[in-house]
Amino acid sequence: MSLWILLCAAALLSLERLCYVWIWRAPDAFRALCARPVVALVGEPVDVIQTLFYGFKGLQGLVFVGWCYVYSDGTLLPLSGTRSSSFFRLTTRACCA
To answer: For 15-37, b where at least 16 C-beta lie within 10 A, e where not — what string?
Structure first.
């Protein structure tokens, strides 16, 4: 396993927690950010948090797929008899359940 890939994945996934901690610890600053014209287009602060939530879920999905891609020799197609096909078993179960 590459340390660089692990650190990149950890950094990307930590953005969500850092954002939510900032919102929790500094709600007035978050409300001030939400009052800016560009952010206000999203809506109220709760709407901004919801948009952040969906964005972070998308980021988590991309990190997961990227991780699978890197550690399955550059393909997401299942290879017979290897662990890379577990990606498809997991996603098929999640999507079809």
So the answer is: ebeebeeebeeeeeebeebbeee
Q: How far apart are CA 65 and CA 77, in angstroms?
A: 12
Q: Is the pTM above the cut of 0.85?
A: no
How many CB atoms within 10 Å of residue 74?
7
Q: How many domains does the chain fold into?
A: 1
Digit-coded pLDDT (tens) for 22-70:
999 999 999 999 999 999 999 999 999 999 999 999 999 999 999 888 8
Domain of 62 in residue numbering reads as: 3-96
- 3-class secondary-structure state, position 12: helix
